[in-house]
Amino acid sequence: MDTSHQTLNEPSFRESVDIMFNRAVALMDLSPGLEEKIRVCNATYTVRFGVRLRGAIHTFTGYRSVHSEHMEPVKGGIRFAPTVHQDEVEALAALMTYKCALVEAPFGGSKGGLCIDPREWDEHELEQITRRFAYELVKRDLINPAQNVPAPDMGTGEREMAWIADQYKRMNTTDINGAACVTGKPPNAGGIAGRVEATGRGVQYSLREFFRHPEDIKAAGLSGSLDGKRVVVQGLGNVGYHAAKFLSGEDGAVITGIIERDGALHNEAGLDVEAVRAWIVKHGGVAGFPDANHHTDGAALLEVDCDILIPAALEGVINLSNANNIKAPLIIEAANGPVTAGADDILRERGCVIIPDMYANAGGVTVSYFEWVKNLSHIRFGRMQRRAEEARHQLLVDELERLSGDKGLGWTMSPDFKRNYLRGAGELELVRSGLDDTMRAAYQSMREVWHGRDDVHDLRTAAYLVSIDKVASSYRAKGL
Ligand code: NAD
User: Fold this and answer.
1) What number does the ligand 1 atom closest to the CA of 155 have?
2) CA 327, CA 304: separation in Å to the nearest integer?
3) Ligand 1 probe mutation, 95, 239, 438, most atoms within 8 A of CB
4) Torsion over CA of 328, 194, 441 and 212, rounded to 10 degrees?
5) Does the Cβ of 306 fall within 6 Å of ligand 1?
6) Taking the model in full, what pTM does it have?
7) 85 close to 114: Cβ distance less than 8 angstroms
8) Is 111 known to be catalytic?
9) What Å distances lie between residue 398 and 114, 237, 395, 415, 418, CA to CA?
10) Per the residue annotation, which of 111, 229, 245, 470 is the catalytic one?
11) Which helix (H) or strand (E) holds 277?
12) What are the tens digits of pLDDT across the range 53-109?
């Protein structure tokens, strides 16, 4: 297990999640039996399989953990990383349970992982390994549209999801709902518009919602809007890149720091996110990027002065060893578990506001939910309504123009307004609307608890209270 980023006294990732869970249930009136039932992970399957590659058999270890089946299917990503281990997968599965409950995605929590460094294998080899791992999970119904539906996570993306979906279909040739066995697929393989960027988009929507509430902005010691806020992002992968791109491109935030595996870039005047991303793709890291100061100790930049810190790489990066040095008044956990339980205590004491992972990165599972529904309904969102909506809008525009002409008022609509108003919503617009609505509603539910109860002082505890309450109701309804 990789504990290099943690101090010795730090609990493991799973223990950290449990500590946060326990802090919340101490404020609830749950029976001890139910409390334990919700907390524990139901099952973790470990598989070791061999694949013949480069003239030798290589053995790989993978996991699929099911935390809670109060709703099925269970849902959660599959991570490819050399550091994957059981404790991590179980912690991530637990977070999936709470996350799905918080954003009202009708799933239990699950997570999977394969111990592998994807950069060490070429595409053809990775396909063989992924298909073999999927085979092991499919044959035990740990991948199944009705029971367990994976998605991308660190080290995996559309390509791996397409291989998994195809593997499932090869093994279940008559399952008409086969495409719904995994989400995060490419659009041409049953995916949905807007899924790739969904988690980063969700981070943006979370921050927009936060900045709609003056009381919350004040609690973080900030003022104004997202415009001009100095942002440091750790991890320019799927989640970090999209969050940074949208926040800087659409909300006026200034990305002053980007932390990657091989170091960090810092420029108070702002970094060009697209240019940094292109540099990483070409050179394999941030080193050598012009127009910025380069720090070889990347993690040190977590401690730099900024308005918003977005850890979007891996867990445990803000821990007992650096929590006291963090200067950002607002942290949004785009990654899962970036702040350990001990660091959370310290930061809370110091007045730092943390928008917790189970909410902040829920955009991915939310759009995955839409994709799953799309696959089960076998029709693209908006296909039936779009032109009908446009025709109705056209009627209104024609009538207004006629009235304006008849009365000699001479009103004209700007071409921009007309074009935008006349356009019916396609899949991408509907996905964004559903995601925005979900992120706003979930924030409201946390916020009501945060400000409404004297014994709740942070958004994380509030988020746990909301989600545990939902999971508990679901178990009670089952007679537990
Ligand atoms: P990714 O593999 O696309 O990107 C991870 C990035 O972090 C890479 O650019 C990598 O180089 C960088 N990185 C790795 N180690 C680092 C280190 N020590 N310091 C700095 N940077 C480092 O992964 P992702 O899908 O963007 O996931 C990132 C986090 O977001 C994970 O915690 C994941 O569980 C969480 N998450 C992802 C999704 C999703 O839809 N992909 C959804 C919810 C949560």
Assistant:
1) 2
2) 6
3) 239
4) 50
5) no
6) 0.96
7) no
8) yes
9) 58, 47, 5, 14, 11
10) 111
11) helix 273-283
12) 999 999 999 999 999 999 999 999 999 999 999 999 999 999 999 999 999 999 999
